[in-house]
Specification:
Strand content: 25-35%
Structural class: alpha+beta
CATH superfamily: Gcn5-related N-acetyltransferase (GNAT)
Shape: globular
Distance between the termini: 26 Å
Number of domains: 1
CATH class: Alpha Beta
Radius of gyration: 14 Å
Helix content: 25-40%
CATH architecture: 3-Layer(aba) Sandwich
Strand order of the largest sheet: 1-2-3-4
Length: about 140
């Protein structure tokens, strides 16, 4: 497995990884966005953000979208969970943002919370979810070296 910068041509495979990962999050409102809307969102994100992918044998297993000071998305496809892709992507985020960064995750996403805490991120704030489109309680995490 290796990490590489995503190209604009990777957006479709990244979108499928995102959709597959979010389908496992049973606490999400599945009807919030259509798959077509989500694909368009991912296509725009890949063009605008610094996106890194974890790949093996030409297949994208996960991705991370970075903007200065923020890790906006870190998703790994369900078939690659617990295989190291998330750890590699998080290490890349730390390498690219050595002064630190913040990220949000849902309070209900216990796996993500354990993952981030295991990798040295600290919970700094909780909300009721009034500021996210899902309307779900969330947590702000920070990594400060």
């Amino acid at each position: 497995m290796h990490i590489q910068r995503a190209s604009e041509d990777d957006w479709q495979e990244i979108a499928e990884t995102f959709l597959a990962a979010r389908r496992t999050m049973t606490y999400l409102n599945a009807g919030l966005h259509s798959d077509a809307e989500t694909r368009l969102f991912i296509r725009r994100m890949v063009k605008r953000s610094e996106v890194w992918v974890a790949a093996r044998d030409g297949e994208i297993l996960g991705f991370a979208a970075l903007e200065p000071g923020w890790l906006h998305h870190l998703y790994v496809g369900p078939s690659a969970h617990n295989a190291g892709a998330g750890s590699l992507l998080l290490a890349k985020a730390k390498e690219e943002m050595p002064r630190g960064f913040s990220l949000w995750t849902f309070q209900a996403n216990l796996g993500a919370r354990r993952f981030y805490e295991r990798h040295g991120l600290t919970e700094t704030r909780r909300t009721r979810g009034t500021d996210n489109e899902e309307g779900l309680p969330d947590i702000l995490y920070e990594w400060r070296p």
